[in-house]
Amino acid sequence: MTRRNRTQNGLFSGSGYVNTGNSRLTVPRTYASSVVLNGDTLFVAGGSDGGIYRDTTEFITPGKETLPGPNLPKDLYGHCITPINDTHLALLGGGSGVSDNDASKQ
């Protein structure tokens, strides 16, 4: 299970606390989900910040660089993410700040 939390210099991931050193997320995130890829890169997806729901993702590299990742199909928070194999992740559950009805009007 992946714990979702926001801290100053680290994140919780499925493999435990990951010290991100001096690296910072580009936007504040609570209820985001994260997973370690290839044993050394942290992938952070979705989340919220005071009613702002995120559809963005970020990578934190072994060199502590924060890089933008692909956008999610819609904003998502409170979800879980887990690797299926070396090339695929499963993103499960969670909620969105936009209802399906509202999203179809955009």
Q: Shape from CA axes?
A: globular
How many distinct helices? 1
Class by helix and strand content? mainly beta
Q: Average pLDDT, to the nearest integer?
A: 77
Numbering strands along the chain, what is their spatial order in the largest sheet? 3-4-7-8
Q: Helicity level, as a percent range?
A: under 10%
Give the number of DSSP strands.
10
Structure, explained:
There is one protein chain. The protein is mainly beta. It has one domain. It is 5% helix and 35% strand. It contains 1 helix and 10 strands, in the order ββββββββββα. It has one helix at residues 100-104; strands spanning 10-13, 16-19, 33-37, 41-45, 48-49, 52-53, 57-60, 66-68, 80-83, 89-92. The strands form 4 sheets. It has a 4-stranded antiparallel β-sheet with strand order 3-4-7-8, with no helix packed on it. Strands 1-2 form a two-stranded antiparallel ribbon. The N and C termini lie far apart (33 Å). Residues 1-10, 12-18 and 99-106 have low confidence and may be disordered.
